[in-house]
């Protein structure tokens, strides 16, 4: 039976779950695609070739057992498929929704190389875990025997949440500190609901709370306690704050009203979705309704901004990016979704100035051309002389990526080592910082990256922290 279920990629075409019509989905913040019906999920999973060297798993940061849970799905063994998927990831249904599969697992699928279209791995992963939640297969966190040791985690984003679960499983008391009023970090406030509905994140957080993990929300290290204070409270500390400082644009008029940061804009929208009071949204400062919107940038955050603006009822939405489509860092699928919803992309262009005085009224931009490769190997954009043009704009959203904040100063910890990029310096093997017992993981170490890498880092650092605390406890017993 098992052999009959697989290797159907020649006679069975690739099929993603149906997307809602663009005009309808642009009216709300619901996810744009429905979930597979059971027969469709089994059929698509059965396209897997079960290849000897599974590049999908190799290129997954979590090294998920993808061919194995695809086989189980194709055979109708969904509960086993979920258990295997869950064994390597604390958030499989979240990764299934927001991972750029076209750049990771699906982009490296052997079937994709053969011209038959990749197995729809992300959609199947989402289906498996959503089914598990519906059927009650998602079990509580299995809390290990109490170790008597306590961990403080700074940051409730994906790295912090992942580490918290593994450390609680090991039997440690776990306290998570976050400056926002809800846990989840960018999962909660940075990613729009049309990619990740917030109930999906909140039920994960609730599961951790039910396991006895204590969340201290609205808690800012450096204001409510110093890093040294937390070190005195806990046996070890994890810094998992992510990177949130927006990269700037150097151009005349950049400080005008109506020129805003991407994360500020997305957070306002997500808070509104929660039903929070958001004065800057209500007064129009962070609301695209009726406005001509220009988003500067070409990554996934820029795609989140343009698609949010469409849903807010913008008069027009343009995305200004200095390279061409083939060289943009964001997901090509997201570009396609945005185009379907009415976003106009202005490729090979960059802002030179923002007009309007106190309040922005337009963007002066220059056409770009691609020159010699830069340090990353990508062809560097350069200005095409005499190619200036103007775009009307009532709202300009800067989405050029994120950098690390000045943590030593913010945390009141001048001895915390940082790199020249402002990220926390951590040992490559132990993941410990320059401070004994203080570890770091996620974007605050590697720079702005993917959620799946943050989950991987959280998993890895939890193992290092557990080993360090156990060695410390054993040494204390021997000394006694």
TrEMBL record:
Pfam families on file: Fer4_20, Pyr_redox_2
Cleavable signal peptide: none
Keywords assigned by UniProt, alphabetized: 4Fe-4S, Iron, Iron-sulfur, Metal-binding, Oxidoreductase
Domain (FAD/NAD(P)-binding): residue spans on this chain: 151-458
SUPFAM superfamilies according to UniProt: alpha-helical ferredoxin, Nucleotide-binding domain
Protein name: Dihydropyrimidine dehydrogenase
MF terms in GO: 4 iron, 4 sulfur cluster binding; metal ion binding; oxidoreductase activity
Dihydroprymidine dehydrogenase domain: residues covered: 25-136
Lineage summary: Bacteria, Pseudomonadati, Pseudomonadota, Alphaproteobacteria, Sphingomonadales
Superkingdom of the source species: Bacteria
Entry-linked InterPro entries: DPD_II, FAD/NAD-bd_sf, FAD/NAD-binding_dom, GltD-like, Helical_ferredxn
């Amino acid at each position: 039976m098992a052999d009959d279920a697989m290797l159907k990629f020649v006679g069975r075409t690739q099929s993603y779950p149906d997307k809602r019509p663009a005009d309808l989905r642009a009216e709300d913040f619901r996810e744009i695609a429905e979930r597979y019906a059971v027969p469709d999920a089994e059929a698509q999973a059965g396209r897997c070739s079960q290849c000897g060297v599974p590049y999908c798993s190799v290129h997954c940061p979590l090294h998920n057992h993808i061919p194995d849970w695809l086989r189980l799905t194709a055979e109708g063994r969904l509960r086993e498929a979920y258990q295997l998927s869950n064994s390597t990831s604390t958030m499989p249904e979240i990764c299934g929704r927001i991972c750029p599969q076209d750049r990771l697992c699906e982009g490296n699928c052997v079937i994709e190389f053969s011209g038959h279209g990749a197995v729809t791995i992300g959609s199947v992963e989402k289906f498996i875990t959503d089914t598990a939640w519906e059927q009650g297969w998602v079990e509580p966190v299995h809390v290990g025997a109490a170790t008597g040791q306590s961990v403080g985690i700074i940051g409730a984003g994906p790295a912090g949440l992942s580490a918290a679960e593994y450390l609680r499983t090991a039997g440690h008391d776990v306290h998570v500190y976050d400056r926002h009023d809800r846990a989840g970090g960018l999962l909660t406030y940075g990613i729009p609901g049309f990619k990740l509905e917030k109930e999906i994140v909140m039920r994960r957080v609730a599961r951790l709370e039910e396991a006895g993990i204590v969340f201290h929300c609205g808690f800012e290290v450096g204001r409510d306690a110093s890093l040294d204070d937390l070190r005195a409270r806990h046996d070890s500390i994890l810094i998992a704050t992510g990177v949130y400082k927006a990269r700037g644009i150097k151009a005349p008029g950049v400080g005008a009203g109506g020129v805003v940061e991407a994360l500020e804009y997305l957070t306002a929208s997500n808070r509104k979705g929660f039903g929070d009071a958001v004065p800057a949204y209500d007064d129009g400062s962070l609301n695209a309704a009726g406005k001509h919107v220009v988003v500067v940038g070409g990554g996934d955050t820029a795609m989140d901004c343009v698609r949010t603006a469409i849903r807010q009822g913008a008069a027009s939405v343009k995305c200004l990016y200095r390279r061409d489509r083939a060289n943009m860092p964001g997901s090509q699928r997201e570009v396609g979704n945005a185009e379907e919803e009415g976003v106009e992309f202005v490729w090979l262009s960059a802002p030179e100035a923002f007009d309007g005085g106190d309040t922005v009224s337009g963007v002066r931009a220059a056409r770009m051309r691609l020159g010699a490769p830069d340090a990353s190997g990508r062809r560097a954009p350069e200005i095409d002389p005499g190619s200036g043009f103007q775009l009307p704009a009532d709202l300009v959203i800067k989405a050029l990526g994120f950098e690390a904040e000045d943590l030593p100063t913010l945390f009141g910890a001048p001895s915390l080592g940082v790199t020249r990029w402002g990220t926390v310096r951590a040992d490559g093997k132990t993941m410990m910082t320059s401070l004994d017992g203080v570890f770091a993981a996620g974007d605050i170490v590697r720079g702005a990256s993917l959620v799946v890498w943050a989950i991987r880092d959280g998993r890895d650092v939890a193992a290092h922290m557990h080993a360090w605390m156990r060695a410390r406890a054993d040494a204390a017993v021997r000394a006694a």
